[in-house]
Amino acid sequence: MFQPSVLALFLYFPEDKSEYIPAVISLTIFMIAAFFTMRFIIKISKREALKAKELEEQIKNNHFTQRDS
């Protein structure tokens, strides 16, 4: 019942729209940082997947050579 009145305490729409500028700047900076962080994580993940695949192939080849001997 009291939810709209509680939420109204946290809403603030400034009359001077120039107060939005710092928020937009910080949002832009964090979005760019998040984008590059995600690309970095994906790049490292692909590199680790390639290493895991090479290790798997090495183990398979080693297993087959020992089995044939």
Word description of this protein:
- The chain is 80% helix and 0% strand.
- The protein has 2 helices and no strands.
Chain-averaged pLDDT: 88
Structural class label:
mainly alpha
Number of strands: 0
- DSSP summary: helix tally: 2
Which spans of ≥5 residues are poorly predicted at pLDDT below 50? none
Q: Considering DSSP H and I runs of 4 or more, what fraction of the residues is helical?
A: over 70%
How does the major sheet shape up?
A: none
> How far apart, in Å, are the first and last alpha carbons?
78 Å
H-E order: HH
Rg to the nearest angstrom? 27 Å
Strand-residue proportion: under 5%
What characteristic shape results from the CA principal axes? elongated
Strand-helix topology:
Blueprint: H1 3-8, H2 20-68
Quick recap of the structure?
The mean pLDDT is 88.
What distinguishing features does this structure have?
69 residues, mainly alpha, elongated
